[in-house]
# Entry
Amino acid sequence: MRLGEAGVAGTGPGQFNQPIDVITAPNGDIFVADGHNGGSPDPEPGSTGRILKFDKDGNFIKEWGELGFRPGQFRTPHALEFDSQGRLFVADRTNHRIQIFDQDGNLLDIYHQFGRISGLFITDDDILYAIDSESQETRHPGWLNGIR
# Structure
């Protein structure tokens, strides 16, 4: 199976510009974070910030999100993880937050207490670990780099 077209960047349905992470849901659906180029203060034309959903056979289902700062928008959706309820956690790295969605792309919650999240891991009993690489004194006084 192949998702997208190798060597061809795009912003259309099922195309990738700069994909960052991929994860498979328990039912086999595939979710891809696309938008590594959307984190700069002045993103170049064609930059993306979105999540794409495919079925277990690689057929495009839908996408959600766009570049921006508002809830449901992304600036570098850098890591994906599911909890035991099937909710999709998206590390919205340059917006310094984690956005939580159902598998249809509906926004459920936002966690704001981070610097720049580079990775996520959720245990079977739903303990969330966030790799936070830039929570230093200038961004969050009193915080230290590490895993939260």
Summary: The mean pLDDT is 88. The first strand starts at residue 19 and ends at 24. The radius of gyration is 15 Å. Residues 19-147 form a domain with the Neuraminidase fold (CATH 2.120.10.30).
